[in-house]
Write a structure and sequence with these properties.
The strands form 3 sheets. This protein has a 4-stranded mixed sheet with strand order 6-7-8-9, with helices on both faces. Strands 1-2-3 form a 3-stranded mixed sheet. Helices cover 51% and strands 9% of the residues. By secondary structure, it is an alpha/beta fold.
Length: 571
């Protein structure tokens, strides 16, 4: 052996066997060495131990070591073919850096096809949370693509979660058999926490917050609970009790400073309670949407479209007509137009075909068509002078708010036709017929909460008062941002004492507040719209006291206070 030769020493343990076999193996090794004719720069020294602990030393070249390894199971530098699929998979997922840890754990592609999510987190426990989340997400998608999605895998039904005992790999805890309802269904799909956090911007923000601070405050915990519950609710995915408890355990594993008790509230947990409340509210009381009125009301009227109506419509659109000619043509196609309106499913369809309603004199056309629909109807314009005093006295006697009653007393009896006088009485009605409906609304954090409309909500749905035009425009922008259909609404510009009807994003100017109330009410009936839920009681009163005198919607139950008010005012 030369001084320049690099030598490695490997000790091989040999099992029991006959002395003759061992001697034959030694002789074969010596023959390999004796047949070597070219000098080798890399050599390996091997010690063979027999049963008597005698040491036999041989020196092999690198190539001879490889040949010998195949003879006596000596590990060599060869690359196993089964490693290639795992490397390729990780490379396609852009996570090739995880190869060594998975390979050392004995995990290959076949194992990944049956692995559970908590196994992944156990294997990658020394990696960053971001690596765990991305890998779980990638494997979840890959398993889904190959038809083997990740599912919950629990022990037998006598097991569930408890905050007292945990396994070394993952916190799956023993449970008393007295809770069989917590056992999951055999093939219940499980949405992992990493999936929810990756798909939601707020989830990514929470992960960034934890990465910076290594802990959560109560605000972040509440946001996380709401994020999980809302995800299941919005995607219409059932969240079982076991799944919610599993998510709690996953939170404590993904965010080590968190504790299970932060997310517990009795037996069911805060996540499950939040999800349950969201589902209950969404089933019983969906967010109030302003839609077309009920089919029962739509069928009250039948129309017989005129044969030459299309010609009249074209003439209205393209001919230069005098006011008298326009009014004549408008009346000539009234049945055709009303039939169009009552068969439309969207407001925009009506105003696209009949844009004249949004012209400066549109209120005149609304007035004409309402009279065509309800020729015997009275109006607030004709009845106000004879009814305001009775209405005012009733409100003063029945409203409990002292500020409102004092304001009514200060009005006096001589200015009943002025806008401020009329508006004060109309606004006071909301304090007696206050809203009783409830609505499910979203907060700034995205959480849904159920609450009743307030008197302020009722007033704002009836009339919005602004000092300047810009204030009115800002309010319209706010209404649009809610994503709801904007119902006919009165806008008051107090700076100039002007009143408008907000109709399909167009401000229709009227002469005074009584005329604004009159046109706004007629818009609901003409364009077949529901009253805003927040001030429904108010518009029901206007309808039954000043216009129809009888309930036009027989399927609708009348508010008891409204019934009392109408009865008292009529006697």
């Amino acid at each position: 052996m030369g001084d320049t030769e690099a030598q490695d020493y490997v000790q091989l343990g040999e099992g029991s066997g006959s002395q003759n076999n061992r001697e034959a193996e030694e002789l074969e090794i010596q023959n390999i060495i004796s047949n070597e004719t070219e000098p080798q720069t890399n050599t390996t020294s091997i010690e063979l131990l027999n049963d008597s602990q005698d040491v036999h030393l041989f020196t092999l070249s690198g190539q001879e070591c490889l040949e010998l390894s195949s003879l006596i199971n000596l590990p060599g530098p060869t690359k196993h073919p089964e490693d290639i699929p795992l490397r390729n998979l990780l490379k396609s997922l852009n996570q090739e850096h995880l190869y060594d840890v998975l390979n050392d754990a004995g995990i290959d592609v076949e194992i990944l096809k049956i692995i559970k999510w908590y196994h992944i987190q156990a294997v990658l426990k020394n990696f960053m949370i971001s690596d765990q989340i991305v890998f779980e997400r990638n494997i979840e998608q890959w398993r889904k693509d190959i038809g083997a999605p990740l599912v919950i895998s629990f022990p037998v039904s006598d097991y569930a979660f408890s905050p007292t005992h945990s396994s070394s790999m993952w916190s799956i805890h023993s449970l008393s058999p007295s809770s069989p309802s917590q056992s999951p269904e055999p093939n219940e799909s499980y949405i992992s926490l990493s999936t929810i956090l990756e798909e939601k911007n707020k989830g990514k923000q929470l992960m960034e917050f934890y990465k910076r601070n290594n802990c959560f405050q109560q605000q972040q915990r509440d946001l996380l609970i709401n994020l999980i519950a809302t995800y299941f609710d919005e995607n219409n995915i059932h969240l079982s009790l076991c799944s919610s408890q599993k998510l709690e355990e996953e939170i404590t594993h993904m965010f080590p400073s968190e504790k299970t008790e932060f997310y517990r509230m009795g037996k069911r947990g805060k996540i499950y309670f939040k999800y349950f409340n969201l589902r209950r509210h969404s089933r019983k009381l969906k967010p109030a949407k302003r839609k077309l009125i009920s089919p029962q009301k739509k069928t009250n009227k039948s129309f017989h479209p005129e044969t030459d109506a299309e010609t009249c419509l074209n003439s209205l659109k393209y001919d230069n007509l005098s006011v008298e000619e326009f009014d004549s043509l408008w009346a000539s196609c009234s049945q055709f137009r009303l039939n169009d309106i009552f068969n439309s499913t969207k407001q925009t369809e009506i105003f696209e075909k009949w844009p004249f309603y949004k012209k400066p004199n549109g209120y005149r056309l609304i007035d004409k068509d309402f009279q065509t629909l309800y020729p015997t109807s009275t109006s607030i314009l004709s009845l106000w002078q004879d009814h305001w005093k009775t209405l005012k006295n009733f409100l003063m006697e029945n409203i409990k708010d002292k500020k409102v009653t004092e304001s009514l007393k200060d009005l006096g009896d001589t200015n009943f036709g002025e806008d401020d006088f009329v508006l004060e009485i109309l606004k006071s009605i909301h304090f007696y017929l206050f809203p009783t409906a409830a609505v499910s609304r979203k907060s700034n954090t995205g959480a849904k909460s159920r609450s009743k409309f307030t008197i302020k909500d009722s007033l704002m749905a009836f009339i919005f008062e602004g000092e300047t035009t810009q204030v009115l425009e800002d309010h319209i922008t706010f209404l649009k941002s809610r994503g709801e259909t904007i119902q006919p609404l009165i806008l008051a510009l107090r700076e100039k004492n002007e009143y408008f009807i907000l109709l399909d994003d167009y401000k229709l100017k009227t002469t005074n507040v009584l005329r604004a109330v009159d046109i706004c009410f007629k818009c609901f009936f003409l364009f077949n719209l529901k009253y805003p839920p927040a001030c429904e009681n108010f518009w029901d009163f206007i309808e039954l006291y000043f216009y129809m005198k009888t309930n036009t919607n027989k399927t609708k139950k009348m508010n008891p206070k409204l019934s009392t008010m109408l009865h008292t005012l009529s006697t």
